[in-house]
Amino acid sequence: RSSVAKTKHQLGMIAEISGDYPQAKRLYQESLTIDEELGDKSGIAISKHQLARIAELTGDYLQAKRLYQETLAIAEELGDKSGIAISKHQLGGLAEASGDLAAAEQLYEQALAIFQELGAPEAATARASLDRIKKQRRR
Known about the structure:
Layout: H1 2-17, H2 21-38, H3 41-57, H4 61-78, H5 81-97, H6 101-118, H7 122-138
Helix pairs in contact: 1-2, 1-3, 2-3, 3-4, 4-5, 5-6, 5-7, 6-7
């Protein structure tokens, strides 16, 4: 069943990249259901993250925020530093989009610190996000 969940997840990614958000959402939800049945917390976090992306891409920012927060909680429970940083960066993007620049700056700073600690290439993206926010806040 784990391989079925992973396959559905990969098919969801293809649908997402193709712009077929309803199909992507359906496949990610099916993957999530299997991950939940298996008790695969990492898989649950990954599926919820992708569902959050679909919500964000389709303008459902409240749903996206809720799902990113759930993903963050799972990453923290698992001690998954990369997952924590990614979730914080995504939440920073939502805060920025909603005009809460102070929250966005704080979340981007936290994400950047973790990405730098891990030596992750995503640090460059987090740095660019943080620089953008700092410029906006100086205006």
